[in-house]
Amino acid sequence: MSVADSDQWLPAQPGGIKDLLAWEMDDGKTYFASAGSDGTVRIYDGESGSTVGRPLLGHIHTVFALGFWREGDAVRLASSGTDGHVCVWDPHSSALIIRFDTDHLTSVRCLACWSESAGARVATGGYDGTVRIWDALTGKRIGEPFECQTGPVSALICWEGMGGAWLVASAGDDGTVRVWDPQDGSLVRGPLDTGSGVEAMSTWSGSNGARYLAASSRQTGVVHIWDVSVQGAAPVRINVGRGVWAVTSWADGPGVQLATGESEGYVTVWDVATGRMTGARMRGSPMAVTALAHWRTPDRGVRIVSGIADGRVRVWELGSDAPVYEIVTGHAASVCSLVSWRNGDGQPRLASAGADGVIRVWDPDSGRMLCDSTEYRGPAIWALAAWLDPDGRARLCSGALDGRARFWDAETCAPIGPEFVAHTASVSAFEVWRKSDGTLRLASGGDEANVRMWDLATGDPVGETIPHSGGVMVLTSWQSGNGETTMVSIADRTVRMWDPDSGMLIREEVVNQARGLGSLCSWQDGMGSHIALGGYDGAIRVWDIHSRRRECFHRARRHDSRAGCLGPSRWPCQAGFSGFRRNPYLGPGRRPPPRGGTDRP
Fold it and tell me: What is the Cα–Cα distance from 22 to 370, expressed in whole angstroms?
């Protein structure tokens, strides 16, 4: 029996480390935690690297962020992720203290934690552009949400200000940083402009009582540093030269040092006052450093822990060019995108990509991998497109978390030409279609909240940019009998149908799915035109486009349906942090009966 006729999962690959966090106990022992796209949090002994306790299982999807605070002699750990929930843990007993829903429309990409006289607080930042403050031990929201960014909130950090009052800084894919009073949501500083999407932040106090804030760009490779205690202060810039995915900082005598985790696998330490490197760059592999944390050793030295795109963690002694130890965490990289096609000889093919930054091409009938792009591994890939060029050769385009795109030979997984900037924020969606004159076009969308068109013959942008009300998660299209193309996009739980040539909106509907939609595909058969919607609630909904009638509903098993496809190979499949598999409940003649009859989005 082939994989195509079974319910078998093709395994996920190692990777998917989203965040790292270190803390010191009163007895001087240090621990650190890793968060992964497999939905787990794992705890380690900082001295030996050995695992402490069992993996923390409270999220059903990717864990994006970690934070902690002290509660007497104890430490409390908070985590957040794609499922929109916050989990609060006792990291040393592996006990889940509370799990609560944050009411963000989609993922909680970042959080910040602190303890004040009124109790412990957690601030959450979501893809909906808002920040919300919560009582960490009851899960009750404090005050109203405040609008922070014009796009997804990508980073949060907090500190205790003058007089014991806490402040929170937010940053986003819109390239701005803002400082807030969490008590009333009032803006204290900003917006401070970085010119590109912000991936991470760090903060410290100066010897003169000033408060400094650093924000890193995953696209430009520049770290901006502001004195946020002074209104209108100009930033200092450190030009790292590569995409910066993570930062951490610490006091060094009277000064401060800042470590950057970079897209080409380097960890570099900088003197903040001079903007110069303090020594040789640390590098264990060419794969991107996706997370950083640090701690002080008993002799007051500094250890840096780095999370690598392939799922490994390395711990470095400051000043050494070799890691103290390395850990294979066991985190698995989620599969974020799937695309299928038929080669010129009619053979079906499937390509997958995800958090490990690697494209893999498969024979879907046998489940055999035909090639991969490990040699050219880069940032997490969220979008794939496939087509045949005029000579009948299969081509791919990948869209990454840093807003860049690249063309590939689908037979060899080798790149064709250099990367190019498709969007200023994450690229989440692609769709290829053929115009009536035979010209191939590519549509791209992402967290920049617009859709752009590209000529696949030249690689150049064409036409007008089409704005959306939020990040564009997915795209699909179909052609009517007269050759006219209809494009479908999802943003902010809204399904939009529009003409890709004119940009004219045809129809839009809000889908009643509170957690948000993460995937979309379309197809035509003898019964009409259909779309399938994959949600972060783990459900797949199939609709008849013209009647708007729901044809079937299938609840996926332990997976977030972030990516799904039903391509020309007629190999319906679904993907998540468990890998991907054929879905036996979708496709001709294999649909379960509808639930409850007509059910409009």
Answer: 40
